[in-house]
């Protein structure tokens, strides 16, 4: 059984974060292990506003020790790292256990928010984690933060962002554009391996029930890497997986909806 670790925030609403990752690992026929760095709650009385509750260093470290030393994992993904100690602990364990397959999802903003969650932590994440990443999966906002450019609005600008991020140390860069580029009629992303750019396109699902899509795609890439796929093939598989889930998405409440991940079965078993 392939064992995979997700490090990040728990989403109390169930659609994103660790919850989405573990569902994704299950769909890929893998055994999921989790390390929580924070718990994200939503306030129904304040239009579903997000609140981030960071966990203490000892709690994060004990979970990492359980996962790495106690269970053993084939591939690792990190998502929300809401404190200095979380970032430093993750970097320490990636090095200590010589992790060969690591997906860095540089969560800097919650969906629906235009501001960085912890802007002061961005550079620390870039320094400590980006050079260790097999694949880094920034959205357009995060691409701008890491590459120190304006938010990309064209494919060429996405490519430039990917190139600059690769120069900062990541082995492979997957810039998630989705349907956010002006005039784009497909869900369009850019993959860069340091030599070649690949456009990754699929159907643009317009339902709006897409909470957790970014978490899900990075978790699916992690599962693909854990099963021995190349970075590019893992990304193609993840893209199909997420698109299928979004096509069958459903409304959770009056504020958000999410993809139905059980609608896609990749027969790895």
From TrEMBL:
NCBIfam families: HMP-P_kinase (TIGR00097)
Keyword RNA-binding applies: no
Database matches in CDD domains: HMPP_kinase
Residue ranges of domain Pyridoxamine kinase/Phosphomethylpyrimidine kinase in the record: 11-258
Protein name: pyridoxal kinase
Keywords per UniProt: ATP-binding, Kinase, Magnesium, Metal-binding, Nucleotide-binding, Transferase
InterPro entries tied to this protein: HMP/HMP-P_kinase_dom, PM/HMP-P_kinase-1, Ribokinase-like
Family: Belongs to the ThiD family.
Keyword Phosphoprotein: no
A single BP term in Gene Ontology: thiamine biosynthetic process
TM spans (from-to): none
